[in-house]
Amino acid sequence: MALFQIFDPSARPTPIGIDLGTTHSLVAYTVDGRPECVLDCDMSPLLPSVVHYLEHGGVMVGNAGREKAALHPRETLVSVKRFMGRGADDAETRRMGPYDFAMPEPGQSNTVRFKVHGRTLTPVEVSAEILRVLRTNAEEKLRTIGGAVITVPAYFDEAQRQATKDAAKLAGLEVLRLLNEPTAAALAYGLDKGRTRGTFAVYDLGGGTFDVTILSLDDGVFQVRSTGGDAQLGGDDMDRAFAEWVFRHMGVDPATASPELVRAALDAARLAKHELTDRPNTVIAVTAGETTFERSVRRTEFEDIVRPVIERTTPAVKRALRDAGLRPEEVDGVILVGGSTRVPAVREHVKKLFGQEPLSDIDPDQVVAFGAAIQANLLAGDGAQEDALILDVIPLSLGIETMGGVAEKILPRNTTIPAGRAQQFTTYADGQTGFELHVVQGERELAADNRSLAKFTLKGIPPMPAGAAKLEVTFRVDADGMLTVTARELNTGIEQRIEVTPSFGLSGDDVERMLLESYEHAESDLAARQLRERIIEGERVIAATEAALKVDGDLLDEDERAELDGALKALRDAIAGQDGKKIHHRTEGLDRATHPLAERRMDRAVQQAMKGRAVAEIEDTVKDRPEHPHLAASYAADEASDKET
Amino acid sequence: MTDPFELLGVERRFSLDRAALEQRHRDLSRTLHPDRYVQSPAGERRMALERAVAVNEAFRALRDPLSRAEALLSAHGLAVGDADRPSQSLLMEVMELRESLDEARRSPDKVAALLAQVRARSGSEEALLASVFDDQPAPGPDALGRARDALVRLKYFRRFEEEADAALDS
Fold it and tell me: Is residue A353, in this structure, part of any structural domain at all?
């Protein structure tokens, strides 16, 4: 007998979690708090992150796309994640691979562009194709999907994070949060095993990225202690090293090999790598056109070839432990994430680094998507009231270039987010009327050695003697790890605020244009789509306000209550009238009217949080428990309040 | 910035229980973290974000004994900026330590021994800070001056510890 699934049209949309991986991508959701992956049409949860572009428009994504890679290597984009947020002149674009690149035209941002069938494509657009398929798969399963939590490598920088958000926007997804992949894995492990406390290390070696994260779990709060990694290191590098070995034995120079042969060698390397996971030897076979090559290879040979790649993970692990103030044996469990951790030599290496057998009882390919789904449910689903919480950190220091090209760190790496800090700078020349600000990301002493995020100028300052102007620069990083910089001259009050759009990312206009160009967002749809979004937003604010009034209505006096009720009614009327502009306007009005209530509610909640535990508990002096000096955050010895810029 | 002690509701002292401080930070984060306000109106979201940032910043300041000492000094009206020049003897001591570190770089045991030596020095500066801020109800100008000098030394030692730590890794 057929089972009919009955959909309740008023049911809450299901929030989803997406692992947008280098090799595979997955989408998951939760049922009664437990994560499950959505299966692709071939009944596998893994959608290969491969996009093949057809000559006359249209794409083939996943396995269907991958089948095209051998014959159409230039038109089939594999591992596009490695190019996210990268500049056209980045070293990554020059590495061994079968693609054609287009240099940016004048006026275009300096992002990587692939040349495919005479079109140019950014990694953001390619990733959006993968996300669209995941969205469609999820919609088929769940009917209505809510917002999405999308995972990114913890070591992704600002540009890479922004590119990921842009791709989601292009695919028509509402991003609830960007979540770091190792943190997602820890969330899945922690909640799965019902563990309540402990210190964990997550070793995440994926197709193209490596992350290591140390975090502690206490009463449901996952606090990241430190994170490190390499955003350009993964299983792909093993394949490359292996393919280079093949080329050496073939007597072929990889630089002059045809794209077909390069693709065939990389695919053969990947296949042989997988086989050597369970077997002591295999045969590696490459066929491209007339060229064929076959050779048997032992696991020990393979391990010698990839050992340098695996060794590259060591310094990041050591530094993460040092940043967390921990010795390897103080870690309670090591979690393995990413398909590359299936390679026995990687497991051996991890075991050696931490002096313990790593955990891998959750499928390392699915664990990140599981964590993303759990987080999505905590943020917007049934789990929204639960106590679990993630306190994550910024992976790389954020700072500003000062005199002499030195990078002055304003927010050091491993600062808990959301974070904000202000620092004062002053002029170095008499009569200087502008400040040039150069925002950089990274750990190196000199600004030029770090990643340049943005440059902007604060102008219009009246001429003053050197050192008289006081410039306050405020860095603010939100819970997605995204940075906003504000600069203000304190004597005059002249202010400038920028959302840091990385120098080689896409501008907001680029993204809007792509949205308009993409077939599913033709201009005619846009108005309907906007109205729908405004109604949803209006209803969300109404629901939140009513819920707040129910619990804490006593915090308002009669007049305030009447004003709020008026604003509620006005918005309801506007929604009934289907007038987009009015709805937007009155949603903002209701939002403003709720401020006093919101403020008092927050005060009340804070008081309760502080009362929750006896104050004496906090004030206890513990002289016999001295702090480990290196447990504390790093601090520059010569920090001064005034720096020259 | 708001007084971090007041914001986190802990007594203004140098010695404090790290575990309890972390507990307080977790409790407040549970209340204020942006994750708790994803469904809220925009204004409330911004308000919570501001407070969560302030709580994280206060926690950062109090968790580290160095910035905690700074917060205490500024609570007593003493700004710690570039006005605090290190004494000649401190500069000499740190220079000698640096030279020893350069010589010891190839031998992890020697670096570790140097590190232990400087950590012990930091420990006694922290003890001095505790005696100024915790043992008397209202420290006078002399005591505050001693605390400030101890803080300057602590900063230089910290920088050295970081360098030695990094040398151990490479």
Answer: no
CATH of the domain at A458: 2.60.34.10
Half-sphere exposure of residue A206, counting CA atoms within 13 Å on the CB side? 33
Confidence of residue A644 (pLDDT cuts 50, 70, 90): very low
The answer to the question of residue A618 being in a domain is no
Q: Could you tell me if A624 lies within 8 Å of chain B, comparing CB atoms?
A: no
Distance from CA of B108 to the nearest CA of A (A): 15
d(CA A400, CA B100): 32
Nearest to A622 among B15, B52, B161 (CB): B15
- Please tell me which residue of chain A has the smallest CA distance to B61: A633
A391–B18: do the CB atoms touch at under 8 Å? Answer: no
Give how many domains chain A has, as a whole number.
3
Q: Is A563 annotated as catalytic?
A: no
| Complete DSSP assignment for A80-96 | GGGGTT-BTT-GGGGSS
The confidence score (pLDDT) of residue A135 equals 95
- β-bridge partners, A486: A474, A497
Q: State the average pLDDT over residues A239-256.
A: 90
Quote the ipTM score.
0.88
Residue-range definition of the domain harbouring residue A247: 235-309
Asked whether residue B81 is assigned to any structural domain, the reply reads no
Residue contact A419–B53, C-beta within 8 A: yes
DSSP 8-state symbol, A556:
S
User: For residue B41, what are the domain limits?
Assistant: 4-63
Residue B75 lies in a domain: no
A547 touching chain B per CB within 8 A: no
Indicate if A392 belongs to the active site: no
Sheet bearing A451-458, strands edge to edge:
A406-411, A398-402, A435-441, A451-458
According to the 3-state scheme, what is the secondary structure of A18-57?
EEECCCEEEEEEEECCEEEECCCCCCCCCEECEEEECCCC
